[in-house]
Design brief:
Blueprint (H helix, E strand, L loop, with lengths): L3 H10 L5 H34 L2 H7 L3
Length: 64
Amino acid sequence: MPSKKMLQKEIDALPEELADEVYDFVNYLKSKQVKEKMETTLLSEPSLRKDWLTAQEDEAWQNL
């Protein structure tokens, strides 16, 4: 797996006109990661809801 230093070296060697494409790709990867985490969170919510929506949970969190 390439290190950040190796990636930086490769980016530095690219022609300037490719900088926008590299930037767009990095942002795509970041947004993809956020989307995947959000999907995991949303998919787990129904199974966790049964534990969250209880009188005991309400009591435990009422002072916050």
